Amino acid sequence: MATVAKVFYSTYAILLEIAYRAWNVRHKYGFSIGDMAFLMDTPLSFLKKIENPTLNVPPSSLKTNA
């Protein structure tokens, strides 16, 4: 059982380190959490406008499913 715990902890620590380094690099170059809108179910309308400034986003898209 101790071996399983060590493997789990080691894997968790490695993944956490990778995630931290990726976040740190993104933060260093000026990216923000808003740039990761692809992780959300529905990207916010202002992020859609940033990607395509000519896009007219209807007010109905401002509603969330929360």
Automatic annotation (TrEMBL):
<protein>
    <recommendedName>
        <fullName>XRE family transcriptional regulator</fullName>
    </recommendedName>
</protein>
